[in-house]
Amino acid sequence: MTEDEVKQKVLAALGRLRVGERDEAAALIAEAVHKGPPTGAQWKSIGKLCGQIGEIELAVEAMRKYAATAPLMLSRQLDYWKDLTIFGRTDVVEKEITRLGNQVAYHPAVLHVRGQMAAQDGDFEAATALHLRVVQDPELAAQGWFSLSTITNMSKHPDWIDQMLAVERAGRSSDPSAQSRLLYGLGKAFHDCGDYARAMDCYSRGAAARRSEAQYNPQQLEAFAVAAIREFTPAALEALRPAEYRPRASIFVNGLPRSGTTLVEQILVAHSEVHDGAEVNLARAALIPALDYRYAGALAYDRKAEAGSDPWGTIGAQYQRMLSMRFRTDALVVDKSLTQSHIMGLIRHALAGCPVIWMRRNLADVAISCYRTLFTSPLAWCWRFADMGHFFAVEDALFTHWSKVLGDGILAVDYQELVHDPSPMIRRIASHAGLPWEDAMEQFHTKKRAVRTASLQQVRQPITTKAIGQAEPYAPWMGDFWRAYETTSDRLAKELASAA
Known about the structure:
mainly alpha, 25 helices, 5 strands, globular
């Protein structure tokens, strides 16, 4: 198959996706990946598309072809390794680095990759040593210092803070991403030192540097949420055919970022019946046949299916297949993908065999933790306090709605209650997840596994209450958050009440 024929296959697949025909689109892309040229720059965008529709094996193969494209470039290898890491294939990355030899293994950019993987595996000593070598490179110093700040109490290393400030003054990089990383790292350093005014200054400038990456659209999000709340009523869900096939493929852990989702993930993964967990982002891919995730699309998909078929069970089976590809196991996993609150009605309808745990936490603590976190994904709502207040109000409205509609299908877990008195709540979590009790769930911090979120260090410690009240020092800067939250909450309440 020629490069042009590959292009035509992908264009045809995109046409299928527009009408919700995910499986047909995947078949076309699979043909292109398996029969197309062994190399080429086009494989990068094709790999990204494969990942978006949940075809992880195809995504890995497409990115392998991209990395092999002449002239061989380390930047392409790094893109390939980044995707492998996202898909949990760090073992492949390690083999690739070894295969390419010491000249590549000790390149500063590769040292950074190795440091990140060591930190994810909980080997913070090795990660620190690797990142201290990275910061010696002027081009990568900002990334290296940021990574060090995430795994270190910087108050113990004032000389490191001085070096970070020197890098900032030098301003060698014109890359906004590098600038923001250094600023978030400095923010963490000043936070560790208790200098909250300087910390907030750095975080604010770091957030401003990221705003070119994505734009937050509050009107679009609010309109979608209001429509979901109005449309997905118990009667409307009852009108859809029930799923006959109900795989027990995952445990959904929903909630705002930094609300304790990774803590609960770690508790669950300590159980012998649970294999692993991550922000897998596969439910949306499986639900592509429901088009735009609105009720009209779901109803159209339901009505289009042949009599006697199992349309929603088919989606459940696809989700299960995608999880098997992602984790290379058929065991139970934890899915804590972000913003699944937006599609919770469809998730519960297609995947009724998968329990849902929804984390709730003090809003101020969540807000400041999000503001202080440099998320890998461009979460545009967390770069301004006003946008964050709006987003949180919408999330609260969705939680209230789904709690009423789905009832016992959701277990709400209060973070404060969990950390103050862990044992009873952990037992409730196990029971809701359908897991027989195991003492290991209370010793979750001893479990050795890769953690790929901003909580990678905290969840390796026993449960503590130290994070409660962390927003207090930042209260003077959070006025915009509370004004936006209250205004949006009031407006949503009036709008939804008038439509009731």
